[in-house]
Amino acid sequence: MTAEQEKTLVQKAIEATAGAYVPYSGFRVGACVLGEDGEFYTGFNVENSSYGATICGERTAILHMLASGKSRKMRALAIASTMGKDLSCCGICRQFMVEFIESGDMPIYASDMQGNFEKTTYDEIMPKAFASFKATAQG
Ligand code: THU
Q1: What CA–CA distance (Å, rounded) separates 22 from 86?
Q2: Each residue of 23-53: pLDDT tens digit?
Q3: How far, in Å, is the centroid of ligand 1 from the Cα of 138?
Q4: Its GO biological process terms (predicted)?
């Protein structure tokens, strides 16, 4: 990731917060993934009156990438919210992501609304992730 790519990814995640549908929590989360095709795909959280049906910003961005038909794997992810670096992807998103990461050292940036961010990696937040496709690949 170049410094310019990092800045673009984070900026797009910040801008994506505008689309959030958050009538229940009022908490906007914007996300942006960099696909293996070099394109940026944004997402935001979409809540539901049946709370468990809520979709996080991270998963919306990944679905945006998949729906483009141009990329099946992501190279980086940024999330933005008023929580800044303290926003950490939820457990469902961590598990969801395992199917669509290019590698475990994929960077994850958590930013505030001014673009100040902290960087972690997928493996750091989800060590020993379960992925049944690994078992299948080994027979
Ligand atoms: N949320 C996200 O979109 N991403 C996260 O990483 C954590 C939580 C959303 C879900 C819900 O709409 C709101 O934040 C409050 O939990």
Answers
A1: 19
A2: 999 999 999 999 999 999 999 999 999 999 9
A3: 35
A4: nucleobase-containing small molecule metabolic process; pyrimidine-containing compound metabolic process
